[in-house]
Design a protein that fits this description.
This protein is an alpha/beta fold. Helix content is 48%, strand content 16%. It has ten helices and twelve strands. A four-stranded mixed sheet has the order 1-5-7-8, covered by helices on one side. Strands 4-3-2-6 form a four-stranded mixed sheet. It has a two-stranded antiparallel sheet with strand order 9-10. A hairpin with a 2-residue loop joins strand 2 and strand 3. Helix 3 packs antiparallel against helix 4, helix 3 packs parallel to helix 5 and helix 4 runs antiparallel to helix 5. The longest helix has 30 residues. 35% of the residues are buried. About 1% of the residues have low confidence.
């Protein structure tokens, strides 16, 4: 097993010989071979023993801690003495204002393009003129990017594009049991936002793994500012993959694979926007979503650099390596991946 997700509240992970045991309510809920484990993802109040922590550190296993709502909280970091020269190039290139601006513009342009493609396709399928109009508005923002001469302008264009996209996202839902009136998070306040946040987090983790394998520093990017605990480069390079999460959520809802009673509303807390109640997926649904997510990553699509159909997961890692190669070769322009229509 490459990845292990422990999502049920109150679960404890213990090591027993060459296996990891998931303990729940005093009984062994699952036994997993420790050999081959590459990533452990824990949610909510799940905990682990000291022996498990030692095993994770010794074997350099990527360990991610998420909130019950699926938001990234923390990661167990390992010392990585390699890739010094590549990271030196990363720091130098991303300190170059012109290069950094060029990378940010490219990332935003391709994110906008993916949004336009999705909106136009669904506008044609549903006969929805409002989707087509919004797609044209988002497309126009790509032209504004050409004249954007500082990062604040680029970020503003990206933010406005997201606002336009989410303003009509509810029209893409073809299931009257679900509604979407706008993006909210930290925590999400409705099932659609809970699903989006959860899958965005999963994708960011995958991109982060690709960045680490490529030897880059995940905390220095171009579009996203440096902030404590935020992997800015992962936030940059996941932008081209957000459309994958959005399509996946729409498919699950529109095919009625997920129901409103698959979610739990928690008591409202101080600071929660609009006085709403945070929404969380039930553990069984989270697991089903993870299965669907990994199935999506194994789907093969056409990858122009290799002229072959390639698994999405492999493409994500390949794109991270291509970004690293561009930095090492003196700033070769990065080309984000466009998902087929």
């Amino acid at each position: 097993m490459d990845e292990l997700y422990v999502l049920e509240p109150g679960s404890t992970i213990r090591k027993d010989g060459d296996c990891l045991k998931i303990i729940r309510d005093g009984t062994v809920a699952a036994t997993i071979p420790a050999a081959g484990l590459k990533q452990l993802v824990m949610s909510g109040t799940a905990s682990l023993s000291g022996a498990v922590l030692d095993f994770l550190i010794t074997n350099r296993i990527d360990t991610v801690f998420m909130s019950p709502a699926g938001r990234f909280r923390a990661r167990l970091l390992m010392d990585d003495p390699g890739h010094v020269q590549l990271r030196q190039q990363q720091y130098l290139r991303l300190a170059d204002t012109a290069f950094k601006l060029s990378v940010a513009r490219t990332i935003v342009r391709e994110k906008l393009e993916n949004q336009v493609r999705l909106l136009l396709r669904r506008a044609s399928q549903y006969g929805a003129e409002s989707l087509r109009v919004t797609a044209v508005q988002v497309k126009a923002l790509q032209q504004k990017l050409v004249g954007a001469d500082d990062l604040d302008q680029v970020r503003g264009i990206e933010g406005y594009g997201a606002k336009l996209f989410y303003s009509v996202f509810g029209l893409l839902l073809r299931n009257d049991r679900f509604h979407f009136s706008g993006r909210n998070r930290r925590p999400p306040l409705d099932p659609v936002n809970a699903l989006l946040s959860f899958v965005y987090t999963l994708l960011t983790n995958e991109v982060l793994n690709g960045i680490r394998c490529a030897g880059l520093d995940p905390y220095l990017g171009a579009l996203h500012e440096v902030a404590s605990g935020r992997p800015a480069l992962a936030c940059d390079l996941v932008e081209e993959w957000r459309i994958l999460a959005e399509r996946m959520v729409l498919t699950l809802i529109n095919r009625r694979a997920i129901q409103p009673d698959d979610f739990v509303y928690r008591p409202g807390a101080e600071g929660v926007e609009n006085g709403g109640r945070p929404v969380e997926m039930k553990p069984a649904v989270s697991r089903a979503l993870i299965v669907a997510y990994h199935r999506q990553l194994e789907e093969k699509v056409w990858y122009p650099p290799t002229e072959m159909k390639t698994a999405v997961r492999v493409i994500i890692h390949s794109q991270c390596r291509r970004f690293a190669k561009g930095l090492a070769e003196g700033g070769t322009p990065y080309a984000p991946f466009r998902l087929p229509r």
